[in-house]
Inverse folding.
């Protein structure tokens, strides 16, 4: 009987220990929060932090989230507990995602807090600007959580990995495909079970990832050949990494029996911050300027306000044969920021997937812009940053291959003189 009581005591002690380690109190994060926030501002050049668009502190329920795969998600002491600690022995099934039911378009800042509960296994990732190649959002088609669905499936997104088992690397990859586009030292080593604050800033083709106030990744996507082609999982053709994802959902992914806690997800808008001096040096091509050309049935209008110049052009959606082309003459070598402007007064009038193609010499890159986002209409919207050499052919082309009306108003090119 004495031996039985001792065994029961040991079991209770173990359960209490497990419970304490899986339900960390929110107050335990105070030190790391102060450390990561002390004087730190996400530095996305030519943008400033704007309004809070969405937040989640897990004080209620998980109605705003959707799981996929063999995973466990629950609220534990005001924190999100998320685990891929599947009972299945096959490693292919020890993984899955949880998606935040909030849609957002670049530019913005995503921030959240993270604590791994494993110190000897696991892999954590976060996806952003995630949507379907066929135009569906991530909640409109079923997935099982298997990685092949991201490599060869319908998903278009960026994701960054950290707390990687048997590795000291943090990687940004781009789907579809297994395109490695940035690789840096892992800011959260495998043995680390402390709280950390992660921030991701996305503006056009420019992506930045911070951990506890330190810059980890600073990547400008020009759709070039991915890194380490020919190595593991890189038998997939990689002559280029494809279009730039600009909008979609946020998702967390765990593999290899990873368990972790999350809290305080926030999304802030990034507002364009262009100085008066920069605007004086900007090259703006309006739809009535010499650098503009069009093909197809485009109609002029002044109905929706905040347009550039005398008016703007609109065109009904079609097969892509109608085109509006902005072709600047750039005076100097260097890196240029490329912006476009559209106008809208109600979402039902505009396309959610207006396709723009940017050409800078040998770099040809496409991205889809949601023109129904009224808070971004009538303002300069950055598509990306591109390197230019005198003599390069440069243009921004909008077609009418979309799900609704597209608008051609203006394009702007600003030489980045900052080091």
């Amino acid at each position: 009987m004495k031996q039985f009581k001792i065994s029961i005591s040991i079991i209770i002690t173990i359960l209490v220990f497990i419970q304490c380690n899986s339900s960390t109190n929110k107050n335990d994060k105070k030190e790391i929060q102060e450390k990561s926030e002390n004087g730190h501002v996400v530095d996305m050049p030519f943008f400033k932090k704007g309004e809070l668009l969405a937040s989640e502190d897990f004080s209620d329920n998980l109605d705003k989230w959707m799981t996929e795969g063999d995973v466990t998600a629950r609220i534990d002491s005001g924190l999100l507990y998320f685990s891929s600690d599947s009972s299945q022995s096959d490693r292919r099934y020890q993984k899955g995602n949880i998606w935040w039911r909030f849609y957002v378009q670049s530019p913005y800042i995503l921030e959240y807090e993270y604590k791994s509960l494993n110190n000897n296994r696991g892999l954590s990732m976060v996806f952003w600007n995630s949507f379907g190649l066929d135009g569906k959002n991530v909640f409109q088609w079923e997935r099982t959580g298997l990685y092949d669905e991201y490599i060869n499936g319908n998903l278009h997104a960026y994701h960054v990995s950290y707390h990687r088992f048997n590795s000291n690397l943090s990687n940004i990859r781009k789907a579809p495909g297994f395109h490695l586009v940035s690789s840096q030292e892992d800011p959260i080593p495998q043995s680390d079970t402390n709280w950390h604050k992660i921030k991701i800033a996305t503006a056009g083709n420019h992506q930045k990832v911070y951990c506890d106030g330190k810059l980890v990744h600073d990547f400008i996507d020009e759709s070039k050949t991915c890194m380490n082609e020919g190595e593991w999982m890189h038998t997939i053709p990689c002559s280029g990494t494809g279009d730039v994802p600009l909008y979609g959902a946020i998702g967390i992914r765990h593999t290899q029996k990873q368990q972790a806690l999350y809290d305080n997800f926030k999304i802030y808008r990034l507002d364009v911050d262009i100085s008066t001096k920069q605007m004086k040096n900007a090259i703006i091509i309006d739809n009535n300027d010499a650098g503009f050309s069009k093909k197809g049935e485009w109609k002029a209008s002044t109905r929706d306000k905040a347009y550039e110049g005398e008016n703007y052009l609109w065109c009904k959606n079609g097969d892509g044969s109608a085109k509006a082309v902005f072709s600047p003459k750039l005076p100097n070598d260097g890196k240029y920021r490329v912006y476009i402007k559209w106008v809208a007064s109600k979402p039902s009038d505009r396309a959610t997937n207006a396709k723009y193609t940017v050409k800078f010499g040998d770099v040809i890159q496409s991205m889809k812009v949601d023109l129904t986002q009224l808070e971004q209409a009538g303002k300069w919207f950055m598509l990306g940053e591109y390197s230019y050499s005198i003599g390069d052919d440069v243009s921004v082309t909008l077609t009418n291959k979309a799900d609704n009306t597209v608008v051609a108003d203006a394009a702007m090119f600003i030489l980045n003189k900052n080091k």
